[in-house]
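User: tokens in, sequence out, please.
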């Protein structure tokens, strides 16, 4: 079930913001402040910093905290990944992610999405594609259309983030429609990069532990409730993300060239050649 409204407590359910960031990646928000707000407002969260789980060692006796990570694949798509406990997440990170990070640790890694998913499944991780309809290679749908990945990648997870607070209403509605049509696993999260945004989108399940909660996600027995940020909220996200990436200016510039110019250029050049071959066959 998916609702576009401000999250409110549901009796008998635990709620978790399944997509948020801290100072361990491209945010300035401290874990102490995140826990303080979540405990006050009575919701849990899954910390999904970019390409790391190191902040997930946090604990709370009052709210549900789920170890997670937002992985940036070599091909482009971002994959939200959730673990039953911190030790599993840390072992997975140390074995497969850490060595594949680039100079900008928040950007795309050297690890293929296909290999990543196969390895994460060995740790019984639950996964979904973050912001699937965002108009860049960070979204799975754009990557498929541009042939950076094949459509079979969708089926390897069959999970999508249906409400992402940082996207527009139209983008999220496309994700909702896709999930209904394909009976997908669903998650929802704020994609908060500021403390104010945290908890604006929550996923509800009848569970009291991370393992129980993730099992409910896997069984598709969850509700996602929340709203998109206003324009000012998306602007504040940009003002947070950009300074955090400035220290990696030149590595980031190189990656932006490869992802926004070189890869799309190769795609469109291939389309031109295919069109030319079709015209030659007709003549």
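Assistant: Sequence out:
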């Amino acid at each position: 079930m998916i609702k576009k409204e401000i999250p409110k407590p549901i009796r008998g359910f635990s709620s978790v913001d399944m997509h948020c960031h801290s100072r361990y990646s491209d945010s300035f928000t401290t874990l102490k402040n995140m826990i303080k707000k979540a405990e006050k407002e009575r919701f849990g969260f899954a910390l999904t910093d970019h390409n790391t789980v190191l902040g997930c060692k946090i604990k709370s006796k009052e709210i549900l905290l789920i170890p997670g990570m937002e992985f940036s694949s070599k091909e482009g798509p971002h994959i939200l990944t959730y673990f039953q406990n911190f030790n599993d997440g840390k072992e997975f990170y140390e074995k497969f992610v850490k060595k594949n990070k680039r100079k900008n640790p928040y950007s795309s890694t050297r690890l293929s999405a296909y290999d990543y998913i196969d390895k994460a499944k060995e740790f019984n991780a639950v996964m979904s594609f973050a912001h699937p309809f965002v108009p860049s290679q960070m979204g799975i749908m754009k990557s498929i259309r541009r042939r950076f990945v094949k459509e079979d990648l969708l089926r390897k997870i069959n999970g999508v983030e249906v409400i992402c607070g940082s996207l527009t209403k139209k983008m999220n509605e496309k994700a909702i429609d896709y999930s209904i049509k394909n009976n997908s696993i669903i998650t929802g999260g704020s994609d908060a990069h500021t403390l104010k945004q945290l908890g604006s989108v929550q996923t509800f399940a009848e569970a009291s532990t991370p393992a129980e909660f993730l099992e409910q996600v896997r069984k598709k027995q969850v509700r996602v409730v929340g709203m998109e940020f206003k324009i000012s909220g998306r602007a504040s996200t940009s003002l947070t993300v950009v300074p955090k990436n400035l220290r990696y200016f030149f590595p980031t510039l190189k990656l932006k060239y490869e992802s926004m110019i070189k890869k799309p250029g190769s795609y469109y050049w291939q389309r031109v050649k295919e069109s030319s071959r079709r015209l030659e066959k007709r003549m």
